[in-house]
Specification:
alpha+beta, 5 helices, five-stranded mixed beta sheet, homohexamer
Chain lengths: 238, 238, 238, 238, 238, 238
């Protein structure tokens, strides 16, 4: 099988992370994973959500959006529909959980950091690109808080990045673009830390059920690419 | 380690599936998995969603709800808040995908079957109990359509059921109740078919990251219990 | 005239009230009035609504919902429509008013009790069944507060129950089921206390206007059945 | 007992109905019942609601609103709160039902008449004033349709009007203003036709339960005043 | 060119301002500009919006609404649509800005005055009539606050009124009614103070672009009529 | 007076318009006016809004959004607040009107072009930058439709661009950035065509009323810069 893009099965798309693309935000980057472009910003607020009062902790949360023409077909603006749809909820919950998994929230009492991931252009893999970029923006924001002595100790416990894998025509492939995603039998997203451990696994049989062995193959493929993605993250921080 | 319930690590809670609990619905059952009680109904409509017109297919979708006092703390009614929250969206999308994975939608042209899963009482594992129960209600509804000759051929390709597993204090355990779920390092839901294949995997490191090996242990645990759950489903259909 | 159910004109459907159907709620029961099944729970909160601050009083309120397939035709979930419809508002306001009429709210300062009445299956008379069941759940919750010494004195001033009557083909009949309700010329709901007094009367000429005399006949019919309903409530509390 | 207004117990407030206050509407009047002022308009549309297609009938419906400063305290605009509250729903459903009770909808196939009742200033009894005024606006609109030959036969079966009564300090009184309404033990609204029959009865024990005898006294009081109100309606139509 | 109404190009419609039309409001008037009728009320609240806390200032804001049958075609009630539309937002923002421009908000610390402008009947020019009437209601409310010593000094810096002008078939005309407005090439609204200065200019080429010279002609026309409108405002206050 | 940016009073910020920044859209550009960055896309749909059926015309409309961290302070996402606020409505209505003023909609029957203007970073003047960029995206989309023969004749009647001017400390200045905008006595936006005519004027006295003469000075300043902006637009199209 040849992939539509001509890539090898375990080959990721060109990944670039451009830092400091927003003059207001405490952290920001533009992640480009092939034709998927996501703008990530980190915003610090010196307060916590109401339900967290008295819990001696800080909070990290994420929001996800798509510009109406990020896709081949224009989609209606959620602000006009009056609510975020199910997919948006699912993705922003995933981003938030992934980042909280590498931060000691008790080290950032009284603070909230909001990560906004807005997709300017989509071509598959927007949620994993969002996680990868959001970590960079979060790292910048925390560095700023440390430099300004608003944080005494670094609450960041590690690095987090994400990638999708899938089974297309019985072949396990890495980093699906939109065309492949639409034709995948199985599609899985992996969020990992810099120790090679898993933080989130989401696998879905969109067309064909998968076995435990196939799941392992995909985990392996994702694990192998992680050091390369994480190196890009660190370069963006320099 | 002793589990709070005294169960063995690979022991599921008492599971019962009571059929025909609703005199109006084309299919219905009350699933009780320990203290988690979910009422599942299947409703047949002789039309398809607008976006599906002209696609020579039928549709299966699910909705999920919780009565306000299903939990220890009363939660506000989503009808009053004016929208379903992110968790609800995530769960009902999962139920719908899981059921569609075992149905040939092209065999049920022009029909929609809606599965409503309403949690009367919650004690962990409501989404997996919903999937297990929804399949029974769906099977009943399809049987009725076959009996009434509204369907020529059985569109059902197999059986589907679900269970949660987790890592609690480094021990892999099956079928977490609420207390365990709150303390789990990792929590995973597995949706499988009757061939032992995976349809959905959702694993989350709520407290502690997990390795590929740990994921495999959980997959194994879930696979082993599936035949027992599926037997209960078939008994409920008699 | 023979009633569709074969009941006599002044005969109520089989009524059963099953207590303690929810392990979390401070009070709960499942009311079955024929094929109308309503799950009622009472939830205690140690605070009052914002508008009640400084009024040295407590509050009792009710919410009403219908599962999507409670009826012959599935109805859309109010959580998805984004609001409760007019009928729901009307009913939950009625339930709340009826219960407040038999409680001295000043005896329960700083507390709110919320009664949730959720219709699992409907066959006419859901609002009156809700009131009858909600009183049982409320009584249980207040008993619990008294036992826990959170209430010093019993704020409950009496018992409350409700029943519908109607005029079908010029015959006054008791406790209309759905088929009768759809064909009734006049439909009326009566909420009464244990002294035989009226708390609420709602009479509507759905097909045929009614006279003062006919209204009196219906009041009499409702009054006569009340002791029997109230006995069932007390039995459920044992 | 002397009433705050000095009126006798069975004395209504000054009632005036000014017709043709809106140059666009097919029917319109301004009802003034003491300091309660309601603007009623009837709007004809040559179509029926979607759910009524194929039913060979027309439709009559009502909407009710209050200007933000109709009351002593300004209330938030429902357009800003994003929804109509429970009381509004209850009232507009009552107005619609009352008017439909005196119209043969099958005589107005394919037409909808919408009655808008907007309270410019409130002092108790806004819902009954709305019904009284809405009938006048409806009668005008139907007259116009008859004159224009859009209706062949008069679908109006009779006249409808409404009044409130209540028990204040154990005295039955007619047409409560806001001060009395706030202090009433029982408050009841009666909608009647020109044959002296009841179309709607809504009685609520706001402070003190009431007996069947008291209910009869209030029905009598309302019946006695109806001819006077209906005469005003007819005069407004001249 | 003859105007549809027979008015001269620089002739305003008959303008009347009737004060004290609402017994509850701190200020109120009914503005009639031809067949455009707007009810304006001023409501005083002894608090400021949350975002204004600690700013040692008061606040003035406006809301605008249209009764459903204010126009030739009935429009849906915004309370039912669940939100105010873009035009409503635009107009109420304009009214609020215009009034704030002639008040020293620091002289009314801790107070909010809300101006409600509700269109009972529309025939073009509702936003300018609203501004003209809202100023009268605001002046009355402030006079009341001064009389009650709730304000020490008069925060009102001047008078404000508004008028529309337009270019119809290449003729500049004053105070367009609905028919003219629909056919205007250019439509402009001018808000001015009693020194002849501009507070707001909104000019739109609805059919034909306009030159700077034409804009000047319209400004002149509006300026010339202002003293007459402002005299009416003062007369209404007597 | 020296401007905060050091610019001369009639000096615009650096303006750049980068075309084809979105691979899916029929037209797109990124407008940078100093630190104000707006992404504009044009999306063609081969249908018209429901209200336009049978009118033998096409339609052009615009939507406007701001990413949450476009500003110094993060603002809540309108998709979460559940509605677009008043300012958003006002701006997108302005953009749509401005573009429709230079297109013969009857030449594009059965088509809708939607212009999405999303502010990635804000520093004053986002609405005028949006208009300037939206015209470029619209021109590209129309060129594409002409090239594909979906349009027979060019419906575009001219070029449109916009700029803000203001009076800051009594000095008329061009193209206000955020700091100046916050301190302006008067703020005005001008939308003009390539014949030097006005399409829209919006002038607001935010702090100090303005005279007709001052308005003329601002109109002049805006007129003078237009050819330069329009040249940039044409260069972007090459």
């Amino acid at each position: 099988m040849t992939r539509p893009s001509g890539r090898m099965n375990n080959q990721m798309r060109e990944l670039s992370i451009i830092s400091h693309v927003n003059k207001h935000a405490e952290g920001s980057c533009l992640v480009k994973c092939g034709d998927t472009h996501v703008l990530c910003t980190a915003s610090v607020e010196m307060k916590v959500p109401a339900w967290m009062k008295g819990m001696h902790s800080g909070w990290i949360t994420a929001e996800y959006g798509m510009l109406p023409r990020a896709n081949a077909q224009r989609i209606d603006r959620e602000a006009i529909k009056g609510k975020q749809d199910g997919r948006t909820h699912e993705i922003q919950r995933l981003i938030g959980r992934s980042l909280r998994a590498v931060v000691d929230l008790h080290q950032m009492q009284g603070m909230t950091i909001k990560l906004d991931c807005d997709v300017l252009q989509a071509d598959g893999g927007t949620r994993t690109a969002s996680i990868t970029g959001a970590w960079v923006a979060l790292r910048q924001a925390i560095n700023k808080l440390l430099a300004e002595k608003k944080l005494e100790r670094d609450p960041m416990l590690g690095q987090v990045a994400a990638i999708s894998c899938g089974v297309v025509q019985n072949n396990p492939v890495l980093d699906l673009d939109y065309v492949e995603d639409s034709n995948a039998g199985t599609d899985a997203n992996f969020v990992m830390n810099d120790k090679g451990q898993l933080l989130e696994v989401q696998g879905t049989a969109e067309g064909a059920p998968f076995t435990a062995d196939e799941l392992m193959t995909l985990v392996k493929m994702a694990s192998d690419i992680m050091p390369i993605i994480m190196k890009k993250q660190l370069e963006a921080l320099k």
